[in-house]
Amino acid sequence: MKSPVSWRRLCALCRKETRQILRDPSSGIIAFALPMALLVIFGYGLNLDASRIRLGLLDEDGGSDAAAFGQQLTGSPYFKITPSHQRAHLDHLLAAGDIRGYVALAADFSKALDQPGATAPVQLITDGTEPNTANLVSGYVSTTWRQWQINRARDRGIDASLPVDFRPRQWFNAAAESRHYLIPGSITIIMTVIGAMLTSLVVAREWERGTMEALLASPVTRTELLLSKLLPYYALGLFSMTIIVASSVLVLGVPFRGSLLVLFLVTTVFLLSVLGVGLLISTKLRSQFNSAQMALNVAFLPAVMLSGAFFEIASMPAPVRAITYLFPPRYFVNSLQTLFLAGDVWSVLLPNVAILALTGAMLLTLVARSTTRRLDG
Amino acid sequence: MNTLRRIFALFRKELQIILSDSQSRKLVILPVLLQTLLFPFAATLEVKNNTLAIYNEDGGQASVEISQRLAQASAFTEVLTLTAEPQVAATLDAQKAIAIVRFPQDFSRKVILGEPAPIQLVLDGRRSNSSQIAAGYIQEIANGYFTERAIAAGQPPLSELVIRHRYNPNLNYRWFIMPSLIGIIQTISALILTALSVAREREQGTFDQLLVSPLTPTMILLGKSLSALAVGLFHATAIIMAAVLFYRVPLEGSLVLVYGAVLLYFAALVGFGLLISAVCSTQQQAFLGAFAFMMPAILLSGFAAPVENMPAWLQTLNWANPIRHFLVISKGLFLKDATPAFVFLHAVPLALIACCTLGLALLIFRRRFG
User: Are A40 and A190 in contact (CB under 8 A)?
Assistant: First the structure.
């Protein structure tokens, strides 16, 4: 019986595929330039930890207590304060998006403070069109407001320290920098792009240009054909991964607490599964135009929306949460966040690796079975 | 007259290519359906249904009461009870809980004595944004407990903070996502359809056939753009309808202005699509080129993180990003009842981008094929 793989033929096919990759400047863009651009965007551009929120301050009271509160806000490093005496003006700024909220102190603010038994209201209006920022504004203003209460009481010789003393600690990410958890997510997106986008076109291109017929007429076996489409893109993915991880750690200062060997293992199984998705699409659709759109929808968008890279999976409704399990990126994001920030936590990593390996094997088997050696398949 | 007829013939041919083949017809309809049904539920920065762990070394009345209140919060559907110190690290490592609340032994005693009683919060920094929001909820609940205690003891608080979220009172994330999604799905249809369809003609050699017909390069580009616009308008209408009818996002502003903005936005996107196809000779290059533009543009549009948090140089660069301007208009029209003046202000950069990209693409095509 003849072996299904002839090394000589496989090497020749791989060489051909590699040349095709290297010849086209667009693969250089996707494997090197785009990852670099995205790292810069994720590292410096995307920041959920708002600093210097633009906040309006409406002081209708004009008393010394209101002024003290205003000073407390102005002194906070979290805000850039726009003071005003007209509510209409601040409403206008809020509508235009020039401020993200304003604090209003009513005309009877000082009076209510001095009156025993009365409660002086402080109003905060936020811009609800940016829900995340609105939440942050509420949090920061609450903290400042509490601190102001304590200071005011202390100035009058009363001990008004809060009854409860919170000691929050972020494990794995002490400064709670959003960059540290966004980078693993962005690596997943980049790897999906390299693995699925590029390969979604390659087999379809052979069919479109008619070169598939030439290949089929040659003694090349199905396994050889598949491996020749798999190996060069796997190598390209690993190459990109090395550059991305190195620059994340060395340039962006993201900690890496796991071991490189485990990272290599996780990357390998993830690449196999996304390469499987890409190859399956282009084998089934046989048209680059349609494959490209399909890859965008089943590989790229899920990697952004359903992977946990930006959006917390636990917060999604149960049916959507169930759907996230169907797409490989979820397992990779989770593994990378753990490897980068926590370390080799096997109870998290092992199930992820197992599922990715299984998905990869399943998809590649499907690809192999769809790769018919017939023109009318 | 002849010009119009010719453009229309090309427009019809383009639509036929998209709609005649069942595979590509499905690719026009299904993704939008999926995206409108799935993504608004997925894209949320809210914290809901999470698991919280409580390690109560105290067991006194105050800590038990606070624990019960935490268990009832909608942010935490499941509460794990830890009984020993090593479980804290193990629970967080394995991501079994987003946060761990720890009451030290003397918590209730300090509460009774009126001393500041410490609550320790251990948060999962792998999800630092969510865990910070969760920490906010926990603090709010504990503070609420102490405020009620003070009122019961006859000590009303000095001051009270009343928070109102304007335009979106419940901070419903879907109200933020749907107006943004119109822009994002348009990006995909506009760029892929224009950049890829021109590149396909060039790769397959049919572009040359078009050139020897009475069509001028301008007419060819116009025909391609109009057919992409037809698909784009279909997508936009589907999402607007889903937003208003299904997700109940209020459409405060005028629908006419929404469509006006969509048209202008589409022109800017098509400009980028044609520009990419002008410099690419194969579908792979066009697709990857479109992608290399689309992905940074979407990420920097304010959809993933606020534009105002970006460094100044990136904000400047972002002026050339049509998605960013469209999102401001779209959210303004949907939620803020934006005035025509507001829309106009943000439409000017869109119009400028459209003029530059369309003009440049036309110039390149004319020089090369004219």
Answer: no
Main-chain dihedrals φ then ψ at residue A287, nearest 5 degrees: -135, 130
The alpha carbon of residue A11 is apart from the nearest alpha carbon of chain B, in Å, by 24
CA–CA distances in Å: residue A105 to residues A76, A78, A109, A115, A125: 18, 20, 6, 16, 11
Nearest to A178 among B39, B129, B310 (CB): B129
The helix (H) or strand (E) run that includes residue A253 is none
From the number of C-beta atoms within 10 Å of its C-beta (0-12, 13-18, 19+), residue A353 rates as buried
Structure token pair of residue B12: 């019809």
Distance from CA of B263 to the nearest CA of A (A): 22
Cα nearest neighbour of B280 on chain A: A26
What chain B residue is nearest to A324 in terms of C-alpha separation? B42
Q: The tokens of A155 are what?
A: 């100035």
Q: Which residues of A touch B310 (CB under 8 A)?
A: 44-47
pLDDT tens for residues A298-333?
Answer: 888 888 888 888 888 888 888 999 999 999 999 999
What's the confidence (pLDDT) of residue B237?
93
List b or e across B318-350, with b for residues whose CB sees 16 or more CB atoms inside 10 angstroms.
bebbbbbbbbbbbbbbbbbebbeebbebbbebb
Q: How far is B218 from chain A (nearest CA, A)?
A: 23
**B306 to A130: CB separation less than 8 angstroms, yes or no:** yes
Angle at B205 between CA B201 and CA B206, to 5 degrees: 55
Amino acid, res. A22:
L
Tell me if chain B has a CB within 8 Å of the CB of A66: no
Of the candidates B303, B55, B30, B356, which has an alpha carbon nearest to the alpha carbon of residue B187? B303
The dihedral built from the CA positions of residue B231, B236, B239 and B240, taken in this order, carries a sign that is negative
Taking the alpha carbons at both ends of chain B, their separation in whole angstroms is 21
Residues A28 and B186: their CA atoms lie apart, in Å, by 27
Query: Whose CA is closest to B129, among A134, A256, A171, A132?
Result: A132
Residue A304 CB contacts under 8 Å (≥ 6 apart), including other chains? A189, A310
Contact call for residues B247 and B38 (beta carbons, < 8 A): no
For the stretch B341-364, pLDDT in tens is: 999 999 999 999 999 999 999 999
Low-confidence ranges of chain A (pLDDT < 50): 1
Residue of B94, B163, B200 lying closest to A347 (CB–CB) = B94
